[in-house]
Amino acid sequence: MKYARLTKEQFEELHQEFINFLASQSITGDEWESIKKNKPEVAEQELDVFSDLVWEGVLNQAKFLEHISPNQIYLFKITEFTINLIGVKVEYEAIDITTRQGYAWLQQNLMDNRVSLYTSSKNISDDRNKDIFALIQQGAVITKGDLYEFFEKHLNPE
Description:
Layout lengths: L7 H6 L1 H10 L4 H10 L1 H22 L2 E6 L2 E7 L3 E9 L9 H9 L6 E9 L4 H10 L3 E3 L2 H10 L3
Antiparallel strand pairs: 1-2, 1-5, 2-3, 3-4
Helix pairs in contact: 3-4
InterPro entries: DUF6495
Pfam families: DUF6495
Protein name: Histidyl-tRNA synthetase
């Protein structure tokens, strides 16, 4: 398994896709029930293969990631060759930027000396999707990039 097995909830959400996946391997519903009962290791392998296929599809589409904690924001933009980072660090313990009030404070105080903005970039390895998955495992979520673009404009005003 290259990534991680989907959760029970994710499998339930992708129920029809999983049925189609089994059908593409000529496995009927009755055969699947028999496999689960009589060959649980084969069933586990099928779940793992399906999970990897789903992850590949999701990761292939990923262009932006965000990881937000009470005092830091990591915003990632994935290009063909690099992962670009915009980092925001708030050194003010009374503020939790994961709350509505804390984020509002951040928006109004970007130039405050307790707020640090920084950028970084690293080359993508030979396995782009594994790089992205590693960030997801550390708590990042895939986004549309609105927050990244907001801070990018703030850092690079034209």
